[in-house]
């Protein structure tokens, strides 16, 4: 057993004793990390906290495809129950969710442990500075589709039996934040819009390369990056990394995988994941909030993954409490941010060079790519290599003043409103200079993804010309905090917009015209914002 793991497990054991004295235990704690919590276990744990006098309110985010209630928990002191009360408190609101992928189980355990420790245990002082919204078991259906780890999470180092990553519809919930097909997403987005949390933390487990980090992390990767997201990258997460090293003796780094795990080829580089807002972290960063992805290391034992995730989340809460004024100032700057253009497609930026801790591995018959299972040696080396962890635009579009949607686009309007975008409706006709997008090509993928043959188009916005827009049409102004997100979703050439997910297929024809129009002129029209 290496020194890092031994120290972590010793610390974990000592803290477990303190937690037993404080109150309830999770299933993982009761079984020495041999088992993970069922849905019934989580509900029972929350009920036990309330009976023990914890200052929490348990609400319902939504109902899963299989009919399970999805709980969310408010923890605060004094106890509050509404976004308005949270705003009056002046405290930053931190949203923590676990189990969006139900085979990745430590986030669910840590969410329960944190709720206990901030209400009944040693972390109670944190509630003097923050309001917590916790979704401990977001994917309630997937959680109880239990199967051996080798089936549901091949290669993960315990527990022996876990849930599956997809929900009751077979959907990956962390690919659903644009298309919103799952009831979980349709329940969560309005709650996020209402509470508008300052910080969004999503707890996962990586299943990729063999490295030397207890946990890897990321913030929003989309190149439409507001000031708060840039600060998270440059200042906030590096500070968390330093605290993890000094206070917990745990090495952490930016999320990624090796391009090639063959020992002689490790120098090809380390690369992060996808910048599109179908992923919750990217969406929340584009909503101008501090978004943090946590990825425990799947090759570590379950107990150590719980420990690292707990430590990481605890340090986030502490630093948010310390930096709340700076976070609020950057939030306000981000909400005022109005770039002249919107990046609608992207690719990796030129890499920087850094030293990455790699475990030397041998071929196990699955190849050398970043996700291939390999034979471990226990030998770690720090290797300097290219790090691909930022994205740059490959296509940009001028940011218009507004978009006009037809009355029959009510379904798109519902999607936008769930995201928190303000949409108005014309009470009378409007006449002015409008641009239309002339379609050249329309292509659908040959292989379905999440049940969709996703679409991409080529074309260009034609010069503005006078047109009429009838009463009853929808108006989306970009001079609003989520104006950049709205433009990204509505632009036809976007790599993850409404066109991508087949919402406009019936209207797309090569050499035709995109049905959503836009204008660069001021829109002075009689319009109302509907509920």
List keywords for this structure.
531 residues, alpha+beta, Aminopeptidase, 2 domains, eight-stranded mixed beta sheet, 30% helix, globular
Describe it.
The protein has 14 helices and 25 strands. By secondary structure, it is an alpha+beta fold. The protein has 2 domains: 336 residues, Zn peptidases (Aminopeptidase, 3-Layer(aba) Sandwich), CATH 3.40.630.10; 132 residues, no CATH class. The strands form 7 sheets. An 8-stranded mixed beta sheet has the order 1-2-4-3-7-12-8-9, with helices on both faces. It has a 5-stranded antiparallel beta sheet with strand order 24-17-23-18-25. The N terminus is likely disordered.
What does the secondary structure layout of this molecule look like, with pairings?
Blueprint: H1 3-22, H2 27-30, H3 39-51, E1 56-63, E2 69-75, H4 83-89, E3 93-98, H5 106-119, E4 131-135, H6 140-143, E5 147-148, H7 149-152, E6 161-162, H8 183-195, E7 199-206, E8 215-218, H9 227-248, E9 252-254, E10 257-258, E11 270-271, H10 280-286, E12 290-297, H11 302-322, H12 324-336, E13 341-348, E14 352-362, E15 375-388, E16 391-398, E17 402-405, H13 410-419, E18 424-426, E19 430-434, E20 437-444, E21 455-461, E22 465-469, E23 474-477, H14 483-490, E24 517-519, E25 527-529
Helix pairs in contact: 1-11, 3-5, 5-11, 9-11
Outline of the structure:
This protein is of the alpha+beta class and 531 residues long.
């Amino acid at each position: 057993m290496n020194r890092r793991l031994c120290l972590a497990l010793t610390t974990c054991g000592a803290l477990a004793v303190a937690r037993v004295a404080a109150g309830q235990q999770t299933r993982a704690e009761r079984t020495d990390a041999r088992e993970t919590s069922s849905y019934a276990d989580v509900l029972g744990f929350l009920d036990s906290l309330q009976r023990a006098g914890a200052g929490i309110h348990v609400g319902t985010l939504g109902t899963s495809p299989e009919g399970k209630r999805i709980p969310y928990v408010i923890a605060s002191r004094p106890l509050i129950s509404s976004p308005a009360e949270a705003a009056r408190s002046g405290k930053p609101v931190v949203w923590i969710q676990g189990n969006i992928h139900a085979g990745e189980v430590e986030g669910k355990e840590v969410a329960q442990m944190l709720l206990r420790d901030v209400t009944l245990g040693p972390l109670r002082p944190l509630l003097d500075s923050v309001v917590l919204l916790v979704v401990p078991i977001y994917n309630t259906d997937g959680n109880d589709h239990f199967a051996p780890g080798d089936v549901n999470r091949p290669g993960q180092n315990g527990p022996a039996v876990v849930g599956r990553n997809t929900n009751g519809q077979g959907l990956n919930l962390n690919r659903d934040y644009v298309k919103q097909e799952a009831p979980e997403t349709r329940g969560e987005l309005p709650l996020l819009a209402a509470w508008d949390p300052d910080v969004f933390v999503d707890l996962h487990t990586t299943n990729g390369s063999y490295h030397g980090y207890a946990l890897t992390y990321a913030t929003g990767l989309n190149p439409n990056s507001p000031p708060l997201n840039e600060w998270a990258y440059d200042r906030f997460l590096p500070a968390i990394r330093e605290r993890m090293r000094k206070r917990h003796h745990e090495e952490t780094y930016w999320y990624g995988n090796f391009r090639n795990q063959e020992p002689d080829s490790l120098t090809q580089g380390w690369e992060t994941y996808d910048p599109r807002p179908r992923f919750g972290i990217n969406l929340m960063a584009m909503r101008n909030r501090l978004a943090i992805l946590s990825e425990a290391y799947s090759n570590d034992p379950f107990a150590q993954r719980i420990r690292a995730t707990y430590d990481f989340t605890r340090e986030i809460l502490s630093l948010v409490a310390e930096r709340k004024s700076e976070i609020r100032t950057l939030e306000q700057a981000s909400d005022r941010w109005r770039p002249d253009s919107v990046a609608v497609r992207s690719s990796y930026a030129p890499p920087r060079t850094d030293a990455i801790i790699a475990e030397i591995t041998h071929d196990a018959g699955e190849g050398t790519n970043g996700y291939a299972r390999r034979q471990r040696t226990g030998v770690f080396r720090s290797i300097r290599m290219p790090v691909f962890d930022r994205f740059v635009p490959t296509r940009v579009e001028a940011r218009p003043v507004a978009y006009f949607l037809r009355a029959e686009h009510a379904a798109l309007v519902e999607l936008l409103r769930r995201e928190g975008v303000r949409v108005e409706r014309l009470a009378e006709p409007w006449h002015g200079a409008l641009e239309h997008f002339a379609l050249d090509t329309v292509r659908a993928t040959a292989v379905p993804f999440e049940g969709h043959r996703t679409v991409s188009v080529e074309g260009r916005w034609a010069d503005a010309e006078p047109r009429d827009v009838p009463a009853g049409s929808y108006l989306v102004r970009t001079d609003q905090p989520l104006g950049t997100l709205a433009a990204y979703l509505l632009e036809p050439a976007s790599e993850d917009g409404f066109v991508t997910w087949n919402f406009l297929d019936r209207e797309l024809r090569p050499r035709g015209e995109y049905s959503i129009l836009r204008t660069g002129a001021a829109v002075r029209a009689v319009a109302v914002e509907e509920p």
